[in-house]
Structure formats: C-alpha cells, structure tokens
Amino acid sequence: MLRAQQVAPPTIIQTASKRVGTGDYLETIDALKSAAYAPDGTTRDLMAEKLWLQFSPFMTNELAPAKADPADADYILGRGWAARIAAATPRDAIAEIVRRAATSQIVILNETHAAPRDRAFGLEVARALRPLGFSILAFETLRNDVPTGDPGSATAQLERDRYVRFNTGGYTPDPVFAGFLRESLALGYEPVAYEATTKQLTPGGGIAERDQAQADNLVAAIFARQPKAKVLIYVGVSHVAERPLGKTEWMASRLKRMTGIDPLTIDQATIDDLSPGTRGAYDMASARIGDRSAIFFVGRRPLVLGPYAGAVDLQVVHPRRSYRFGRPAWLAALGGKPIAIPRELLPSKGRRLIQVFDAGAAADAVPLDQVLVEAGGPVPMLMPPPGPVRFQTQP
Question: Are 306 and 77 in contact (CB under 8 A)?
C-alpha cells in the first residue's frame, strides 16, 4: 500500500518544470525522484511522483512496465474485459484511421504524458493523414502565452526556425515530442497552439474553464478563418472525449458542439503496460497484434474498453516492447539513423546523459536525441535525423 504525504520541499515542485524547460534534465529529474519516493520505494509526494513519471522518459524514452493488478482491471475496464478482447479481431491501426479519416474533417488523438511512444505514433498518424488533405496540426502542449520580451509565439518560432526550443511547450523538451513537431513541419503541417492562456483562467475555474478556453481557441485560430480545414488535434488523455465523462465535459465534446463537426476521436492512453489495472489487458491484446499498432473489433464495431467507452470512436493498442541498437524499436518512426556515441563521451564511472543536437541549432534547442548511459553498461546508439550534429553531456 503506497503512502502519500506532502513533504517534498516546495521549491523542487515549483521549479521542476522550469528547469526541465531549460534543458536541465539530469539533476532536475534526480531531484524529483528523491522527493517522490522514500528509500523503501513507497511514494511520499504525489506531485513530485507525477512530474517524475512525466519527465524521466525524456531521458529514457519509457517507464518500467507495471505489475498487473487483476482486481484493479475490473474497476478500470469493467467485468468481462478479458472475454471481450478474446472475442475481438485486431486490424491495422493506421489503415483503419486512414479509412475513417477519409470522411472526417477533424481527427483528435490523445496521449499518455508519460509515454513518448504515443508521440511517435502521433507522427505516424500525421504522415498517414497528410495525403488526405489534413494540413493543420494543433498541439495542446504548445505555449500559447507570449511572455514580456519574448520574440514571438511558439508557433511563430517553430515556423521560422524549423526546430524546437526548450520554451516551445510543456512537454516539447522531450526529444521524441520535438521530433514529432519537427517532422510534422517537414510534412507541411501548419502548427497551431490552442492551450488556455493565463488571461482565460481564473482561480478555481477547473476543467470546465480550461477546456472551454481550449475549444474557443481552436475555433478562433482555425475554424473561424478556415471552416473547411482538415485538422489533426493532439491532446492529453481525457481531452479526447467527445461526450461528457460523468459530469465533466472535455474539450473534444465542446468543440463538437460548437462547430457541429463530428470528430474522429482516438484513444491510445488506456490499454498499455504502464498501469497495474490495464497491464493484463495489454498483455492479452498485444500478444495478438505482431509489430504493428492495432485496433480491435467485435464484428464491425470497434472495441473500446475503460472510461472512454462510448466517448471515443477508436482505441489503439501498441506492440510489445522490442529494441534495436539498444533503443526502443518505435523510435524508428521518427526517421532517425543510428550513430555511435563517441568513446570519449562515455562515463568512466556513474551515469552520464549523452545528447546530440543539430550542428546549426541555437543553444536553447531541444536535443535531437539523448540517452542515459551507465559506466560499464551496454552502450546504445543515438538516433538523430540525417545531417551534421554536435554532442553534449550532462553532467
């Protein structure tokens, strides 16, 4: 039984996002882990744990898989989930998304904030939709406030620089997310920021205020000026729900009501190996899909388990973990090519974060890729896109 107490120094919590958002990965993430967990491994600060879970994959690409909890599975997925998976038939996820998107104007795809793999799949979806006329890619994570003295909005910077800076967005210091953004620009997508601004939020406004602001911003930035535009919207977790969940109406539901457009909504944040409650379902489903992401069907109806049943159109299950060059195999979706780490950069003791950057990028550019290497341990390859690069390390 985990115990949760608010004992972490407030400065760690208050400054973690800011420090990671300036490229201080290793020390900040280590400090968060120390604040989050007691020496026996139990949780002692929930907020520190949440931030550590979200930020540590920026260095490692993935969290350790959870141990399955069958009792929790029934609570999350509903009784009979195993029989429903057993009776279902998997179809290729990208092919099914393309088939349905051909008659859709808006596609909304969610992510788990602790799973960079979801971002690599987001890029696969973006590539597949581009030939269908999808030309705008709206990202929840993009900074939508312009601070005093800032040279411009996050989207203006992106379109000017063609690479991602540390201040571009909340999760874009993740090299995988930065790769998603960079490659979507190369595909010809127009990036749009739509997060609620500080002026749109009030103390205690909660989900309703934030999600209404998000929907308002999408309408103003896209549909008021391009009513026929085909748009891919990339969101966090429950913002994908096109129907209220209980008493909570999330962004997709509000946007659907405001525009009159029925979006194609896709969940990839439920059936994974990161939650004890869904690990068993993930193991059962992923054993049947090979090396391609899949959507399960019962007859002609997509199978959607868990809290989004009835609130999204499709639910994606990703393949089991596999590795190439000492890295997750799904990294190949970003288009990188394996390169060896220079021997002189490898640590002689302890750990070192080894980073690779575009040779011409500014000092505040997000790494193209990075790996955490232990002295004496396996040496993975880096996976940057083709082109001249420079290396950097922490510490």
Answer: yes
Q: Give DSSP secondary structure letters for 240-265.
A: G-SS-BTTB--HHHHHHHHH----EE
- Residue from 262, 271, 277 nearest 315 by CA: 271
Query: Which amino acid appears at position 72 of this protein?
Result: D
Q: Give the closest residue to 107 by CA, choosing from 83, 133, 142, 85.
A: 133
Does this model's pTM top 0.85? My answer is: yes
Rounded CA-CA distance 118/171 in Å is 12
> Which residues touch 151 (CB under 8 Å, ≥6 apart)?
157
DSSP-derived letter for residue 304 is -
DSSP state letters, 105-117? SEEEEEE-TT-HH
CA distance 56 to 50: 10
Q: Is 326 exposed, middle or buried (0-12, 13-18, 19+ CB in 10 A)?
A: middle
Each residue's pLDDT, cut to its tens digit, for the chain (395 residues) gives 333 445 545 567 778 878 888 899 999 999 999 999 999 999 999 999 999 999 999 999 999 999 999 889 999 999 999 999 999 999 999 999 999 999 999 999 999 999 999 999 999 999 999 999 999 999 999 999 876 556 568 899 899 999 999 999 999 999 999 999 999 999 999 999 999 999 999 999 999 999 999 999 999 999 999 999 999 999 999 999 999 999 999 999 999 999 999 999 999 999 999 999 999 999 999 999 999 999 999 999 999 999 999 999 999 999 999 999 999 999 999 999 999 999 999 999 999 999 999 999 999 999 999 999 999 999 999 999 999 999 999 99
> Which domains, and CATH codes, for the chain?
1-55 (no CATH), 84-317 (3.40.50), 337-395 (no CATH)
